[in-house]
Specification:
With about 325 residues, this protein is an all-alpha fold. The chain has a single domain (about 40-300), classed as Rhodopsin 7-helix transmembrane proteins (Rhopdopsin 7-helix transmembrane proteins). The chain has helices at about 20-30, 40-65, 70-100, 110-145, 150-155, 155-180, 185-190, 195-220, 225-265, 270-275, 275-300, 300-319. The two termini are about 40 Å apart. It is a multi-pass membrane protein.
Length: about 325
């Protein structure tokens, strides 16, 4: 694993920024007794590869099964792409630093700076893509629960694709802008304030969705298939809250690391927390592994598609 974040979010030569994490780590040895926690490279690359393959499997399953060509699964595919980008970012970052240690690349060359900016953009794109994909899933579940009878008129496939196009266009533009102007405090603060907003969103989601669902359950249950639809919709809401909880647990430590490295690099307590940078980076990739497991566990249709894909592959292998 790397000993620094090759990210413009925490280092930018000649501008109002903090020193690189490598210097901070050296300095922290004198002000804290916390030893740096290192994740073996074998473990790191194994977790990254597993995350990429699992999310790729989700994409293939949705593409192959026409029954999954629905807005909800399109939003899930968007989240899977974001997870893949997160794992790919950490993998490329680690390869980049290994090449620097071997002498094939320099830390301050023009090509390396451009490569660094590209990786920063990929990291931000992954984070923003995950946030807005989760928001899209939340909006879809909200409409499903409270506007069940009008859902197919409100959330059409075409409308879902337009929403995803807007989301990824915005995320791509924002990731480039944030990577280019990451040395500005005004850029870092809005970038990291998204997490408290997500916590607030989870709280509102629980209160609003689960309390009002009781009154809607009584109305929908009076219809012939109302009870079945209500159970399905509430299951989707629970799945969403699981996604949000896992996302915050996996991403929040790394974003907190960026904040501490930006605003209090020489504080002994901050330096102690930054000693677990390797673990925080691995958590991002663990999110990419956990999400597909949630897909498979909570969605019978997707789970059935996985089984068919594996059985078909096994049959072809035996043949």
């Amino acid at each position: 694993m790397s000993t620094e974040i090759p990210s413009n979010l925490i280092k930018h030569a000649g501008q109002t920024s903090i020193p690189s994490l490598e210097n901070i780590t050296d300095f922290s040895l004198n002000i804290t007794d916390c030893n740096q926690v290192v994740v073996p490279e074998e473990v790191f690359f194994t977790v990254a590869a597993a995350g990429i393959l699992e999310n790729l499997l989700v994409l293939v399953a949705v593409i192959r099964n026409k029954n999954l060509h629905l807005p909800m699964y399109f939003f899930i595919c968007s989240l899977a792409i974001s997870d893949m980008l997160g794992s790919l970012y950490k993998t490329l970052e680690n390869i980049f630093i290994i090449l620097c240690k071997m002498g094939y690349l320099t830390r301050r060359g023009d090509f390396e700076k451009k490569l660094d900016d590209a990786m920063d953009s990929m990291f931000i794109l992954s984070l923003l893509g995950s946030i807005f994909s989760l928001l899209a899933i939340a909006a879809d579940r909200y409409i499903t629960i409270f506007y069940a009878l009008r859902y197919h008129n409100i959330m059409t496939v075409r409308r879902a694709l337009v929403i995803l196009a807007i989301i990824w266009t915005f995320c791509a533009g924002s990731s480039i802008a944030i990577a280019l102007f990451s040395h500005e405090i005004a850029t870092v603060i809005p970038f990291t304030i998204l997490f408290p907003l997500m916590m607030f969103f989870i709280l509102c989601l629980y209160i609003h969705m689960f309390l009002l669902a009781r009154s809607h359950a009584k109305k929908i249950a009076s219809l012939p298939t109302g009870a079945v639809h209500q159970r399905t919709n509430m299951k989707g809401a629970i799945t969403l809250t699981i996604f949000l909880g896992v996302f915050l647990c996996c991403w929040a430590p790394f974003v907190l690391h960026i904040l501490l490295a930006r605003f209090c690099p020489h504080n002994p307590y901050c330096a102690c927390y930054m000693s677990i940078f390797h673990v925080n980076g691995t958590l991002i990739m663990c999110n990419a592994i956990i999400d597909p497991m949630i897909f498979a566990f909570r969605s019978p249709e997707l789970r059935s598609t996985f089984k068919k894909m594996f059985c078909c592959a096994r049959h072809n292998w035996n043949w």
